[in-house]
Amino acid sequence: MRYLLTSLLCVFTLSLTAQVDCPSPYDGNGDGNVSIGDFLEMLAVFGDTDTDSDGVWDSLDDCVDLAACNYTNDPSEPCAYIDVLGVCGGGCEGDGDDDGICDSEDDCVGVLDECGVCNGPGPMEVVIESITILYDSVYAEQIDEWWVFEIGADTVFNYTCAPVFSACGDLVSHEGYNYSTVLIGDQCWFAENCKYLPMVNSTGYYVYGYEGIDVAAAKATDHYETYGVLYNWPAVMTEGICPSGWHIPSNGEFTQLTDFLGGDSGAGGKMKEVGYDHWNSPNTGATNSSGWAGLPGGLRWSGGFGYSGSDGMWWTTSEYNDDPVMRNLNYSNIIAGWIEDYPFYGYSARCVRD
Hints:
Layout: E1 11-13, E2 19-21, H1 36-44, E3 125-140, E4 145-160, E5 172-174, E6 177-179, E7 181-184, E8 187-190, E9 205-206, H2 215-219, H3 222-227, E10 230-231, H4 233-236, E11 246-247, H5 251-260, H6 264-271, E12 299-301, E13 304-306, E14 311-320, E15 323-330, E16 337-340, E17 352-353
Antiparallel strand pairs: 1-2, 3-4, 5-6, 7-8, 9-10, 11-17, 12-13, 14-15, 15-16
């Protein structure tokens, strides 16, 4: 709304020869200029104000907040504010990676690695395919000669990327190894034993039959390749054995698995790898119909290693009578059993999806 001020000449006639001028117009701030602000100040006395001084009465103005980015715009607009992207009334509440894309619309809040994975670990291996040296030249007229100089290099890299896990049955990469996975009921399991080995024969990490301390040598053994690592219970309870989004199962989660397979009394046969390549004969009732592919990795105890070929044993995170619980498969029956056992024994481990 605009207000038009007009000066009115007011003359009081006292007689044919004398007159008195009206008082000077209202100049509230005393700047010698009668402006819209003076007029609004004067009219405020009669019950309305203009808080944001935009020339619109507050009673007619939908936005009078000076912190709003549109308070001087169309008075029929509600107040709007600058969002994190600097847009007036944009509504974006966050831009965590400062890429100019609102987090709610951003496919990756962070950085894509060379393999295209958001905040990923990067490639498993980087190989330089080729290096092309770039040159430029300049002609020196005074000596009639061309000067050639290097300005950089164009390097082509070849990246070996870990498989991207999108659904159970895909491979999942962890610490340089790609684990197979299997869906059993509503659970997604590793279909092979854990191979995480930051050290060997120290603080609870063992490879069956290996007594040294060289991790590379331990990983080069056939037993490591087939059966993975044996962990004592304190070691299996630390972070690192399972990749992000996976964990060592509780006894209850193992029970959920065996219940889906018909109960502990018969689930063992459905969980054991078929044949005698790794299991001792008779490998009773082994069908591996679940795809869990249980292997007899044996154990580590105070007397050394034992029971490879006859028993597969896996830690849980649960306790019973203050001792940790492990699950067991045996070559001579189809039972998926469990017992509480000594925490310093070394058993295999599997991961299940969170």
